[in-house]
Amino acid sequence: MSFDVILLRFGEWTLKGKNKSVFAKKLLENVKEKCKEFSSVRITQEHGRMFVELNGQPYEPVIEKLQEVFGLVGFSPAIRVKNDLEAIKKAALSIVRGEKNVQTFKVVSKRSNKKFPIRSLALNQQIGGHILANAQPIRVDVHQPDLSVYVEVRSTGTYVYGKDVPGLGGLPVGTSGKVLLLLSGGIDSPVAGYLSLKRGVELEAIHFHSYPYTSERAKQKVIDLAQILTRFGGKIRLHVVPFTEIQTEINKHCYESYSITIMRRMMLRIAEAIAQRRKALALVTGESLGQVASQTLESMNTINAVTHLPILRPLIGLDKQEIITISKKIGTYETSILPYEDCCTVFLPKAPKTKPEKEVASRLESRLDMDRLIKEAVEQTEMIEVKPESPETFSYFS
Predict the structure, then answer these.
(1) What is the band of 279 on the pLDDT scale with cuts at 50, 70, 90?
(2) What number of other Cβ atoms are within 10 A of residue 266's Cβ?
(3) How do residues 213-261 score in pLDDT, each as one tens digit?
(4) Same domain, 184 and 161
(5) Whole-angstrom distance, CA of residue 45 vs CA of residue 43
(6) In angstroms, rounded to a whole number, what is the distance separating the alpha carbons of residues 354 and 217?
(7) Contact, 173 vs 30, CB < 8 A?
(8) What is the CATH number of the domain that holds 114?
(9) What predicted TM-score, i.e. pTM, was given to this entire model?
(10) Residues 165, 185 within the same domain
């Protein structure tokens, strides 16, 4: 069976009222970008519908790419014919014959083109009768059919389809502002990035690298994770912060039990500075409530106190197994479990404080040359532009 087009179905953003055109425009850009490798494919729009014109291109690889686009809830490869009853019947029968193990069906017609002389109910009956007469053994079941055959009569032609391939849903990437993701080499933060992209944000990432305590392989692991996320959000700018001196100073001058707290507070200060330069409106972390010592409410409260930016935590109510399930689904799990340490695990204290106090943290930080350490870390930050094809590295200066 040869399909002419893929019908794209939209999700929640269609309820955005007067702002709907903004979401539609961005989604169109994202779909075009995702389909650019298919030279024959063309993207068109018509009265609340978006179509991928295949022009001879097999539909399977196109749908595989579209399943990485947020803002789409589903896809249907369709046969397009003239607004002619006999042509519509033939296409509907072709759809049924092209599906395996179909014992029951129903026809669902929508007559958007009111100039077409046959009303929807009569169209259902005539197409259904044609299928019954030519695709035996098969019967009609209007409640729980094995296959629903959809017929859309529009001004440009009639679209007939049956298969429904689910999409990611969510909002089109780039419609909700920019955020900065604290990206480690672990399982959690890439999943947090993915779930943030689902809400339509433009994503940049920041990683804290403590060479030589953490290796170049650990850095490459994070670049690889960012590159996987580009499948869902396009290019990502990854800011790699030199963190060795800061961690050394913390371990030299602060209580061991408070080292993780002070470290996380320093990370947020630096991330806020980078976010302001990049015009990001929020920070995103992979924290899940109660998972580790730094993720208790008391710890979060003490750590959050140093930044004025909102901190988004998409994983806050998920347990570890739920996070792992998502990481496997999006393809980050195998990279995340590679045995290369990040700065959060290298200097891990034996007994981290689970209920750190703000006053104690501030007193310990007064022993550090805070302004110099933060200023130098920001100025020496390297920015890596990670693209779906390949990463390009260049330096970021203030």
Answers:
(1) very high
(2) 25
(3) 788 899 999 999 999 999 999 999 999 999 999 999 999 999 989 999 9
(4) no
(5) 7
(6) 31
(7) yes
(8) 3.30.2130.30
(9) 0.91
(10) no
